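Q: What does the predicted 3D structure of 3-keto-5-aminohexanoate cleavage protein look like?
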Amino acid sequence: MPKSVIITCAPTGGIHTPTMSPHLPITPTEIATASIEAAEAGASIIHLHARHPETGKPDPRPELFQQFMPVIKQSTDAVINVSTGGGLGMSMDERMLAATTTSPEMASLNVGSLNFGIFPMLQKYTEFQHDWERPFLEMTEDFIFPNTFGTIRYAIEKLGGEHGTRFEFECYDLGHLYNVKWFVDQGLIKPPFFIQMVFGILGGVGADLDNLMHMHTIADRLFGPENYEWSVLAAGRHQMPFATQAALLGGNLRVGLEDSLFIGKGELATSNAQQVRKIRDIVENLGLEVATPAEARERLALKGADRVNF
């Protein structure tokens, strides 16, 4: 029998800016509401970033995370996953601070450096709501998102070793799978681990289904299918097709306004839950089941919601 499909929802992220959609959650209350609604719609993991409540700029302060994480925990059984990607331009210490403060069950971890180009979004907008938005997009034309072996090791040892947090390993390119393999071979990453394959970011692997198939094949070869869970996210218009393909191949998937602001061609999604409901319908129409948070915890060997610091 095929395994149930773990749906992750990333409600706000650190890429899109407030000008791009009026539905992007900004305040702690909005992020909490979006997360709860997504969990009720079928997401078993919620991948979280924080934003400045007045400007919407990505914000690493733990006190902001603490305003919405306990609310989500009290209202749902979803696994709470704290990003260590933060916002482009943050230091690794800034990116880690929310996770080391809250000691979550899961945290995301980028496992390779890359050019991370979101500057093409400038072509779509002539005016912005806030002064920070245009320079934030512009700077990515000459920007490397740094994730060195040293900082990856630091995160694994600090969060994994000291907090018992397990990771959503974000792989933006084929070489990132080999980076994970190196840490597996060093004994720092132990199964079952969670590989999130990311497609369609300028600077990473392109959103071509052949790339998905190849990365899945290589991951199976590197890790052995019994040792890891894999998931797929794709940016923008590729979100739903790639999520569907992942489910068809026996994998898991991620949706949310962090990855795409749209629900259909030219139509902004009005909520994260709308995206979750759409992919859940697709998954169930394929004859597959959606995983519960309890199933996700068991398959990913998580420490449990009673061992977090929020």
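A (community wiki): The structure tokens above were generated from the sequence. The two ends are 37 Å apart (CA to CA). The chain has one domain: 7-307.
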